[in-house]
User: Which sequence fits this backbone?
């Protein structure tokens, strides 16, 4: 990849690109940093610094509704991640490993749609469907909705992994009298594992972050953390929201780093 | 792709056509069974709900807002042409277009800069720095601007002091800023992927043939990074068009976008058929955009 230097020809162009680059990074990071810094402010006014304090974290952990929302979030995210990872991986294998079967083209197209459809349309169509088929709105409907959009994301990540995999590995296993199941367990699964884990982490993140779809298909008492926070923000802005936001940002950063670690491990083994 | 195609080719040349056919049929069944659970799930909780949007858009409105399936009509579709709806639709459309354009304008040089760093390690670190906001909670990132633009916050005070701007919160510029902030990473990542795997020897060849830096960029780099431009634009345009959280938090009564308007139909306005027809219209636009994308040679998002 040393050929990249071909592009960095003119110093002044590079200078402008660098200035733009750092400005964009500042734009992306400063607002988040302000939220984090002000979550440690003692002042009840969100935008004014009032000395260091952990008061708002204390309030957050004492807020029973908020803790209930956090529990809902984790419950929904855990179930939807596990189920969508299994279904999404099988779907990716079906499309990538088997080239001809009835409905493959349709399935391929349907699998992409949940990724590009706007959240609001997905939310209202699921709301109407759940009411039509009499599924009570609550944790179950939220989990069902999250699985519906997560399957596609998992499938896309796993397919990217499968595309880089050498099919000769499986053929070699078959030549050595491995059964289908043995070849899958011992060869295919370990090789696609980084993709499966990466897809699972993406599903987990998306499930923990979703506001729009969840807020439409939720029932009484089943609000997830982001939906609860969304309601708080609309009512009034308090520094407690900064504390929750910081917690959510920390969770996101941990998830990014974890997914990168999986990818790196995958690069070495694949 | 090439690996898979070759594999398929080698299968075609197997000796016994009968065995070959049987193996292929077995493979077809296996493929179908692997897909079946996800296929069934998506049919139940994606395809059928998608169809119901269009069905309900032709129903009439019941007392509670729920659709009555007895009286079919196209009222909800004709309502799309009312001045109010048109105003909201036009506003949403232009905000989405403007946001996509600005994301591209800012994101392209940014992605180019990251992709052309000489050391792999530098590129990786910068990429992680883009991934963190990309993965961070969208609501939290929108809330950050809600807080920054607050009436007694520093940005508002500064604007009022210098006379450059007044209160930004709950105005169209605030919504626009929120959209730009929210979706910029969605533009940068596909652009980075496209520019990073670009064959730079082609640019060098252009330069060897006395193309100026600008000409080489316009005639070689830009066309080769087109898949990234299109993928990024779709990833920004479609969610911007259906934006709900951003205008709800940063906007006011005069900045209603299609996303909010749809949700209102399912809440306060209690008009599910009308909400369905607006959703249906958005879906049609979205499908048109995606079909255009795949036609223009794109493969994956």
Assistant:
């Amino acid at each position: 990849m040393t050929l990249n230097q071909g592009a960095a020809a003119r110093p002044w162009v590079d200078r402008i690109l660098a200035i733009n680059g750092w400005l964009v990074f500042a734009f992306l990071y400063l607002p988040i940093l302000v939220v984090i810094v002000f979550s440690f402010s003692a002042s009840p006014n969100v935008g004014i610094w009032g000395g260091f304090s952990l008061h708002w974290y204390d309030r957050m952990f004492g807020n029973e509704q908020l803790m209930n929302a956090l529990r809902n979030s984790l419950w929904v995210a855990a179930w939807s991640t596990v189920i969508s990872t299994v279904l999404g991986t099988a779907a990716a294998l079906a499309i990538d490993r088997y080239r001809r079967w009835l409905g493959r083209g349709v399935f391929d197209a349907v699998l992409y749609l949940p990724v590009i459809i706007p959240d609001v349309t997905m939310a209202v169509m699921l709301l109407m469907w759940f009411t039509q088929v009499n599924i009570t709105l609550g944790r179950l409907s939220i989990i069902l909705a999250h699985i519906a959009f997560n399957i596609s994301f998992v499938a896309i990540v796993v397919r990217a992994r499968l595309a880089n995999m050498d099919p000769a590995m499986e053929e070699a296993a078959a030549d050595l009298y491995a059964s289908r199941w043995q070849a899958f367990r011992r060869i295919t699964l370990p090789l696609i594992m980084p993709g499966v884990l990466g897809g699972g982490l993406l599903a987990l993140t998306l499930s923990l972050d979703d506001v729009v779809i969840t807020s439409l298909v939720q029932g009484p008492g089943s609000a997830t953390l982001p939906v609860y926070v969304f309601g708080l923000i609309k009512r009034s802005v308090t520094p407690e929201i900064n504390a929750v936001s910081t917690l959510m940002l920390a969770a996101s950063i941990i998830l990014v780093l974890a997914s990168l670690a999986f990818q790196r491990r995958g690069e070495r083994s694949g | 792709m090439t690996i898979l195609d070759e594999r398929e080719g080698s299968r075609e040349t197997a000796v016994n056509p009968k065995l070959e056919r049987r193996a292929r049929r077995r493979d077809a069944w296996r493929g179908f069974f692997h897909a079946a659970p996800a296929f069934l799930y998506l049919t139940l909780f994606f395809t059928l709900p998608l169809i119901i949007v269009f069905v309900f858009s032709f129903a009439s409105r019941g007392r509670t807002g729920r659709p009555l399936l007895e009286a079919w009509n196209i009222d909800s579709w004709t309502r799309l042409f009312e001045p109010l709806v048109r105003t909201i639709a036009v506003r949403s459309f232009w905000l989405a277009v403007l946001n996509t354009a600005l994301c591209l304008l800012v994101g392209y040089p940014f992605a180019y800069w990251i992709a052309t760093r000489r050391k792999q390690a530098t590129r990786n670190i910068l990429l992680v720095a883009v991934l963190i906001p990309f993965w961070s909670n969208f609501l939290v990132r929108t809330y950050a601007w809600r807080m920054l633009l607050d009436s007694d916050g520093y940005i508002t005070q500064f604007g009022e002091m210098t006379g450059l701007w007044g209160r930004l919160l709950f105005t169209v510029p605030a919504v626009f800023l929120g959209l730009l902030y929210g979706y910029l990473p969605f533009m940068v990542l596909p652009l980075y992927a496209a520019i990073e795997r670009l064959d730079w020897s082609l640019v060098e060849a252009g330069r060897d043939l006395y193309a100026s830096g600008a000409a080489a960029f316009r005639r070689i780099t830009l066309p080769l990074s087109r898949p990234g431009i299109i993928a990024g634009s779709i990833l920004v345009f479609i969610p911007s068009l259906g934006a709900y959280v951003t205008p709800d938090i940063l906007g006011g009564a005069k900045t209603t976008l299609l996303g909010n308007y749809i949700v209102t139909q399912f809440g306060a306005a209690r008009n599910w058929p009308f909400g369905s027809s607006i959703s249906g219209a958005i879906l049609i636009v979205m499908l048109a955009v995606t079909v255009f994308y795949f036609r223009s040679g794109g493969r994956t998002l």
In short: The mean pLDDT of chain A is 88. The CA atoms of residues 92 and 155 of chain A lie 5 Å apart. The longest helix of chain A spans residues 64-97.
